[in-house]
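Good morning N.,

You mentioned wanting to compare the apo and holo forms, so I went ahead and generated the holo version with 6-O-phosphono-beta-D-glucopyranose. This is what I fed in:
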Amino acid sequence: MKYVFPENFWWGSASSALQSEGEGYYTSRGETTWDHWFASQPNRFHQETGPQDTSQFYRHWQDDIQLLKQLNHNSFRTSLSWARLIPNGIGEVNPEAVAFYNQVINELIEQGITPFITLFHFDMPMAMQEMGGWENREVVDAYARYAKICFELFGDRVLHWFTFNEPIVPVEGGYLYDFHYPNVVDFRRAATVAYNTVLAHAKAVQAFRAGHYAGEIGIVLNLTPSYPRSQNPEDRKAAHHADLLFNRSFLDPVLRGKYPADLVTLLKDYDQLPKCQAEDSSTIAEGTIDLLGINYYQPRRVKCRDSIVNPLTPFMPEWLFDNYEMPGRKMNPYRGWEIYEPGIYDILVNLRDNYGNPRCFISENGMGVENEQRFIENGKINDQYRIDFISGHLKWLHKGISEGCNCLGYHMWTFIDNWSWCNAYKNRYGFIQLDLATQKRTIKKSGEWFAITAINNGFDE
Ligand code: BG6
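and this is what came out, ligand included:
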């Protein structure tokens, strides 16, 4: 069967500043929470590899853009580093950073690759974190200022902006489950961080609208469809709660301009509502987007709790549901995540039927693999498993589009194997293999497959 995608479909991949640039804190930008955390607790990072050990996009940007071209990308998403542009988050703009990002943006456009730019991909300037990070509304305003500066500097050429990448992840990682700095475990503080991130997003959107810049603005959310173990009302309620906390806490404000009433009631019932100010609801209402980026890796399987909650322990999401390891589910044997291709279709249908069919695209989808060198054949990684992963998802995406879903593109995570937060190089995701020591880049079989698929605007199977 032939899977042909709509005209002008966006084919590409995504990356982020901290994960690829290198040339970090010690040389040319302000400190981020990641530099700080790595300096104090390197053992929290796989093989003690920190954010300075990247594919050095800061130096290799020209060659890398040539490689993007070779992979027939017509679009590419990366982020700007707040700490590079404004080293302390709120002060002077660093002219070297402006020159760097201008070069990158201009070269992408010159090569026929549309730049998609994220303003914040997990890399909080340390000076902002020292003020309390997203718990402090002054940081929200500093972010809105940074966003406006970016629109002024690059908005004549960048036509697709994203305020945040996966904003729920720093909430979960930094304030619930201890896998991001500042390693707090406290639901109420997590709720404040999530709420203030929505405000920061909305204020950036307001600045964008007020400036009448040429392009469009959106956000990138990691959506994890929550499937109940059974149709039993208790399991369904558990899945509904997981959906409210981990998807709709961002999805509803950015698409509907308000929080789901059920989520507000839920947090009220458990006395976990963040502090609001009178003008917040109108700010949030003005934060609706033009374009939604969807990161989809795996679904969430949910069941009702097996045991009674001990009310003396602090409230956590797990009071409301248990994760469920569904027997027989298909797993990625090289990363331990579930692979469920129809999830991408379910996300699109939900957006179509319940959110007015917004303009959207798949902004990340990908397959991490441990020890990927074991698959080298004749000098090249033969990652047929990744080709199967991509084509499997593309088929369901194609079905969604043919049923009227407004999905405009597909970006893979990621272009070149990159440094990934605490996991560093544990899981490789790239179309291109990176030899960290020599910086040699070698296109994998999946990269070749993707280049052909992109140029043909689809594939045959
Ligand atoms: C995505 C993030 O969710 O997951 C990326 O947007 C990240 O920044 C990727 O690198 C892979 O994560 P991991 O933990 O498998 O290396």
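Residues 16, 19, 165-166, 222, 295, 364, 368, 413, 420, 423, 427 surround 6-O-phosphono-beta-D-glucopyranose (CB under 6 Å).

Happy to go through it together on a call whenever suits you.

Best,
F.
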